[in-house]
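Team,

Forwarding the record for the chain on the shared tracking sheet. I've put the sequence and predicted structure together so nobody has to dig through attachments.
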Amino acid sequence: MYTWVGLPEVQQTLGRLYAEYGGEGFPSARQALLRAIGADSSRGLVPISAIEQLANLEARQAERLSEPGPAQDLKTAPRLANDAIARLTSLITLASPKPHGAQDVLCADMPPNLERLAILASAYKRKAIILSRASETWKKVAAQLALSRNTYALGEGSPETITDWNPYGAINRLQLDALLGDAPAAETQFEQCEKAARARFAQSYDFFDAIMPADTAVARWLHDSAASVDAESLAGLTRGYRDALCGLGSTRRQIDSVMSQLGILAELLECRAAKKDRERARLLKELAAALQAREKKG
C-alpha cells in the first residue's frame, strides 16, 4: 500500500523533475525512477519510457563525472555508463520476438525503436569520451564509437520511409563516420539532413530542429580533409549556429547540450591525434566558447 507520494507514477514524475537539476539532482532522480520501475505495475500508469529516462540520466551523469576537475570520478563514471547500456540493450532484447536467442540486439528481427536506439547510441558515445578522459587508447575509444555509429545507423531511418523524418540519427552517424575514418559522405547526404531539419523546424519551431543544420555543417567540415582550420572556417561554423539561434528562445540546458557535444567531438579528435586533429579540436572548442559568449550576452 502506497502513500500518494510513493505511487509509481508520482515517483516517475519526481524523477523527471529532479533530473532538471542536472548533476545535483541525479541521486534523487535515479532513486525515484528506480522506485517507479520496480513498483507494482498492475495499474499500468508507468510507461516503458521510464526505463529509457533512467538510462539516459545515468549516461549523462556518467559523462559529467568524467569531466576533468576536482569532482572527476573515473571509477563511478564507467560503471554508470555500463548500467545505462545494460538497461537499454536488455530493453531492446526484451522486445525481440526471440529474446532467448538474441546474440546481437542491434540485429533484432523487429522494426527499430528510433528513440530507444538514439539513447543507446548516445550512451555508447558517452562511454567513449569517458574512456578517452581515462587516457585509454584510441583503439578502445574507437570501439565504443563504432558501436555508437552502428546504433545511430540502425535507428536513423530515411525520408523515403518515414513521414516527417528526423535527421538527428543521420547527423550523429555522419559525425562519427568522420571520426572513425570512413569514406567521406556524399554531399547529397548533408543536403538531405539540412532540408529535413529545416522542414521540421518550419512546423515545430523546436530548438533542436533549428540547430540541426548547423550540426550538419560541422559533420560536413569534419568529413572534408582539405577544410581549413582558420578564422574563416570558425566564422562560418559560428554563423551557422548564430543564424539558427537568432530570434529563437532557448534554455541554458539546451545551449549547454550543444556546447557539450562540440566539446566531446573536440576531445575525441585530440584522442585520435591524427593529422590536423589538434587544430580541428581547438577550432571546435573556440566554436563552443563563441556560443557560450553569445548566451551570456543574450
